[in-house]
Amino acid sequence: MWFVIHKKRIAKNVLTFCISLVACLLLIEMGFRILAPQPLFDDCNPDHPNWPHPLFISDVLLGHVPRQNGTWCLHQPDTNKKIIIHTNNKGLRANREFNYTKSDHTLRILVFGDSFVWSANLADEETFSAQFENETKKILRERGDYTTEVEVIPFGVGAYGPQQSYLRYASEGAKYDADLVLFLFYQNDFTDLFDEKAQYPRPWVAFREENGKMTAHISSAQDVVSEIRNETGNKTFPYFMDDYRQPSTTPPRYKRFFLSHSHFFAFMNKIAKMRNKKNQEEEKELLFKEMSTLNFDLLKRFEKEGNDGARFVSATKQLSFLIVQFSQTVKNNTSAFAFINIPSAHQVQDVYWKILAGRIKDLPPREKLMENYVLNETAANNSIQYIDLTKLAYEHQNEFYHKTDNHWSPRGVEVSAAYVAEQLDEQGLLKERAKVKDTR
Predict the structure, then answer these.
(1) 385: pLDDT confidence band, cut at 50, 70 and 90?
(2) Is this model's pTM higher than 0.85 or not?
(3) Torsion angle, CA of 416/420/421/426, rounded to 10 degrees?
(4) Fold entry, domain 41-438
(5) Alpha-carbon span 110 to 335, nearest angstrom
(6) How far apart are CA 284 and CA 287, in angstroms?
């Protein structure tokens, strides 16, 4: 009799515990759904079985280009809202088409760059090109110009280096009847010039002095792949995107179910992934290296002497020649050219500078380290229109970038597009080019 009563009591306690546990989990789930919603595992996740084809395809010259006529869905960092990415029939990040020849009374601007221009974390209407087009229209309308149309065509591609932007203009962008060409440079683009360990192949553009003149020697991405494979003996690396099949990272079915329906489970899964990453201090060291790529003072402290230093100097010259060549090629096509520098978050945010100041003795003034001498001198010595967004990013450092991603946020794009449009207008480019089109 005692055993039966005790058994019922245990069963009752277990049932009470299970009901309480379920109730607590439901309350936690409700809390996450209301206060901290997480991106669920759906077809907006690249690991989902129903996620469409890859964003990019292989290209013999450039290494990779955006897929044409594509539509993708992704979760935006921080906000976790779903965003839609479209490409048109020429692989441009836009949901409309552009002809090579433009209509009368149209101010046409081409924008080149890497993932900051491609804007994978932003919806079509949030990209720099879209916001810059709106700001340019606003300036023209405020000036009383209601007849000039504005077309901003985005040529940015994720993971592109400066040489790819230059070659994409020379091979495709030059076909467009453009009034103005913008090249947006981000800090890690510098190392893209000589990073032969990149996951995807890039073309090489070497500038050499011959008979007193600088000439460009171009190696296509396919040639680079062949050269590296012959030197290393590795016949599979680096690989073209069409030749590589990503191992399936789709989670098991039971885990997929919880990731698809539970915000709490999705949060715990994200925490588990974060624990598998490298030590945060090691990551910050890498971030400081990225921040210092265009600064000799920090380079001496964070880079090794010898080969790395020599490569840095060589790449610095190569970058300068590349910018000049880009500018001259654009101007030879009767278009104006402007060069824009985007700083990294680690270059402007206070949290990184406090750590840096505690590690380096006799640290030069912050204002001096925030300047990019290579870019400033290249632009000044070659009469290139130059816009630096470093001070703007510093003033808006808490909202300029995503908090969980190093790319700029919708707010960062908004203030940058307005600032660039204002600067170009002050430099006479928008006014001058629009006036030319109005008088044809």
Answers:
(1) very high
(2) no
(3) 140
(4) Rossmann fold (3.40.50)
(5) 10
(6) 5
